[in-house]
Specification:
The structure is a homodimer.
Chain A (H helix, E strand, L loop, with lengths): L5 H9 L8 E3 L6 E3 L6 E10 L11 H18 L3 E11 L5 H17 L3 E9 L5 E10 L15 E5 L4 H10 L11 H4 L5 H9 L5 E4 L4 H12 L2 E5 L7 H8 L5 H7 L6 E5 L4 H11 L4 E8 L4 E5 L2 E4 L9
Parallel strand pairs in A: 4-5, 9-12
Antiparallel strand pairs in A: 1-2, 3-6, 4-6, 7-10, 7-11, 8-10, 9-11, 12-13
Helix pairs in contact in A: 2-3, 2-6, 6-10
């Protein structure tokens, strides 16, 4: 980036954007200004992607870095049942990043933002002597009575996930081993995850879930978080946990254990949620509107505080999930 | 941070916080949720502090890193005339950062947040193989007709700054030279800048400014930004630019040129604003409410697009300000 000033980089961002009418002031001033949505809560989240921790520039292309940075935040909004609205992009750029890579990173970001009608309203660019860090703050809206949190699960609720689990972790392993490239279909779940924005909004709007979160750090971490926040336990049925066909085939050829990848592998960005018995009708309605995305029952909420998984060999404790600094 | 997990770090943050009633959901879920202020615009800004770029851990103590990271964002909100309200804190922590330093960084952040009634509603923590990066997003509110932008200056307006300029740059030079430490009074303006929150709010509320921005990158950059956004020129009077007494004394002893520090040195976080002739009465009212903080007239807005500074030797062009990647 040695040949391009901060203001010129900001100009490259601005030329890609169009602003909806509720953005009173977009990028270019000291701060952005937007009109709130009357009667709705504002939901805010922030997340960083750090080169060497969350992605490796050797096999994650620049557009995917931009895509991922927004996707992880939209996934957090989805977990609250919120409709995404605006984003702020804060970049710490190493000198080694080329201008074409910068442009592609932006293109990946803006492309996903456009798909979900998210306005990029502001941000910040700085140089760094270290790895690329891309920090995104995303905001959305949700009506107060429709917000989804981690804290509402009760004994007797059923546990569900959207989509399939473990694919992203499997893709990452194969990328790291050089067996596939970012363009390979088996890499897509890790490289360009699709946040479950529509599923989250439908679950919230229909009040079809008693608790919800997104699976950024694996299913084991997810059930632990919901159980702790709700003061309950969870028992999973291993045979019900949905893993992709590629993972099963892989396992048959001495690949990693799909259940292990689902429990401990991160980056799936599926939604984990619980549903009261009396919400079953609402969940059916969500399913009808969702179309192809599977929703699978994988366990039950229990009064006892244990986190258990039942498989052919019996019942055992769920291993601790991935956690930074551990 | 090797001995402490991400969840434990988040717990250390949460124990320092108390939430106002408009925070529906604070840290600990996938996202935060707040009630918007009815009839007000929401103002959002984000800014990163990168070790080795914005601060040096050898002479900026941890509490000051936390303080600065929030201060630069509150300064941006002040420049819009906004009342600060909430913040999100996103940390990329190197393994070398000790837990006591983490705690002190938080204390510096929370202490400044408390002073300005800013609620820390959420954030994110990740490890990094690189330097410490602390990214803050701050939100505030302002009424639509009272928002300050960079774009309102017109020929004939007068140009003002709050406080004194150059002190932060002078302090940084002396810190880098090992002449003073972070506890020295001459280091304070760089180490723990005080954002002009109250001045910004008063200027906005009283509609006493036609344009405004904060001086994070020096006065030369500031006048350039306001002139470009407003489509005008600016002529500064060098002898009127307020520099601190220490700077003048320093210069008398062959120290750096105070005018140069004011123009090109960053980190002052004073407000630069313009005022229409018919806003003079409103500005007097702001001055009365502000108390000790000086407001100094330093130039005029011109129809011609030049950026000029007039001193004893005559009139010359204002040098380009500091910019990342240049």
């Amino acid at each position: 980036m040695a040949d391009c000033g901060e203001h010129a980089l900001i100009a490259r961002i601005k030329e890609r954007l169009s602003m909806p009418s509720w953005v009173v002031l977009g990028p270019g001033d000291d701060a952005a200004a937007i009109e709130p949505v009357r009667g709705a809560l504002e939901v805010l989240t922030t997340d960083s992607q750090v080169e060497g921790v969350h992605f490796d520039r050797r096999f994650v292309p620049p557009d995917a870095i931009g895509h991922r940075a927004l996707a992880v935040n939209l996934s957090d909004l989805a977990a609250m049942g919120a409709r995404p609205r605006a984003a702020l992009l804060s970049l710490a750029l190493p000198a080694s990043l080329e201008l074409t890579a910068f442009d592609q990173m932006l293109d990946g970001f803006v492309s996903l933002a456009t798909r979900y009608s998210v306005a990029l309203i502001g941000g910040n660019i700085t140089s760094t002597p270290g790895p690329l860090v891309i920090n995104v703050t995303a905001t959305g809206t949700v009506h107060r009575r429709k917000i989804l949190t981690r804290a509402g699960a009760r004994a007797g609720d059923e546990v569900f996930v959207t989509g399939t689990l473990g694919d992203a972790a499997a893709g990452l392993l194969r990328l790291q081993a050089g067996q596939i490239t970012a363009d390979d279909v088996d890499a897509a779940r890790f490289v360009r995850p699709d946040p479950r924005v529509r599923a989250g909004m439908l679950l919230g709007r229909n009040r079809a879930a008693s608790s919800c979160m997104d699976l950024s750090d694996g299913l084991a971490d997810g059930v632990r978080q919901i159980a702790e926040a709700s003061g309950v336990g969870i028992r999973l049925d291993a045979s019900a946990i949905p893993v992709g066909q590629a993972l099963r085939d892989d396992h048959a050829r001495n690949g990693p254990d799909p259940l292990d990848l689902a429990l401990r592998g991160g980056d799936d960005f599926e939604l984990l949620f619980t549903c009261r018995p009396n919400q079953a009708g609402r969940l059916r309605s969500v399913r009808r509107h969702l179309g192809d995305l599977p929703i699978t029952r994988i366990g039950v909420v229990t009064r006892g505080r244990e986190l258990l998984v039942q498989d052919g060999q019996g019942v055992r404790e769920i291993p601790a999930g991935y956690e930074h600094f551990r």
